[in-house]
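Narrative of activities, Objective 1.

The group set out to show that a structural description can be obtained from nothing but a protein's sequence at a throughput compatible with the screening campaign. Below is one input-output pair from the validation batch, recorded exactly as produced.
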Amino acid sequence: MTDASRTVDRLARETLAANWRSGVREGVPYGYTCPATPRYRHQWHWDSCFTAIAWSRFDGDRAREELRTVLRSGDPRISPAVPAGTRRGTGFSGFLPHTTFWDRPAGWRRAPFYATRERWGGLATASIGPPLLPMAWERVATATDDATFAAEALEPLAAHLDWLGRHRDLAGDGLLTILLPDESGLDDSPQYDGPFRGLAHDGPGYFRLVERVRRAGYDAHRLADRRPHHVADVWTTTAYALSLHAMARLSGDRTWATLAARSERALVERCWDESAGLFRDLAGPGRRPVRVATWSGLAPLVLPGVPEPIRRRIVEEQLLDRRRFRAAVGVPSVSQAEPSFRPAFDRWRTWRGPSWVNVSWLLLPTVAALGYEREAGEIAASLVTAVAREGLREYYDPRDGRGYAARGFGWSALACDLADGVAGRWPAPVGGAAPVLGPLSGA
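Output recorded for this entry:
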């Protein structure tokens, strides 16, 4: 273990422990890792999926509790389903919120901007987040060698995936639609500037967008028929396909793999831009390609059903091109060739250029598995070095590795896995985690 990897390991342990929160809300127990205090003190769905995977390296009990708490956020006492509809008579609709306010409802200054059912006092948003829970569930079950955990939530996880298919796969082709930019987790990414225009996350009209979606009951079918401000989102669909693949392995039911293949096929047939060598979001009812190059357009690289020639083009023409995504440190969130590339700190905007640890964690094991192990190791080493020097920050400048925004940021603990990759011990590619015992044996 190098000095940098030892430092990152220590920082990860300390940060995860310091950010842990637990208690009971409305009779529902919770235990989760807040992303960073004081700004990010709530639970975000995809943050918890990443931090649970990081926790599984150090404390299996907390890793499992983190994911169980994501599932409990769908409890009707915390998050009444929007739209309604239950699975097999249970109280859980399958809807899981993007953000849950376990400690207390959002304060009056920020509450109107959260996509809750009510303008005030809601305990969770009625918006979705990147649907990574089944993927994370499998990763934690595998890391902790816990077949019981792998099997315990098959029905609610299936309900969640069913809900997404009914309510966000608007064309029935496997591409998921987002109604708000932050439903993808990528908030202010320039890929949403065009589709949402003055209603984008960082603009003065965002409150109007949230209120419009709230008044429509967060019904994506209804809004898509009436308004142009929605996106068939590449990254959200990739996360969905990853979870469908994981569910197939967890349950042994190949129906989920068939659904994953449908999403992969739709991404290739409808979103792949052959001339540019990356995937494009599709905006509005006409599904117009969004011609901005962000890391989201590289995300299907991790899907096993995407043809290998496409995956290799993404690696060679995007990730390894120093004019585009091969930066000095990590993988920038926006291509360096884009006019909108802004790699430094911005108090009001995120995802407009800096490198994030979770992006490298998602992409680089697949890059290595495709045979580009040296290049993947170099990119990982650049980010691990920055983390060791700057601490677990929210994101890093891709030019020099300077750490920006929140300190003690939970999912940056995934840098421990990147340090393993630098040493040649890459974690399994996220699209094809090794099966665990028990329920996975028939997969």
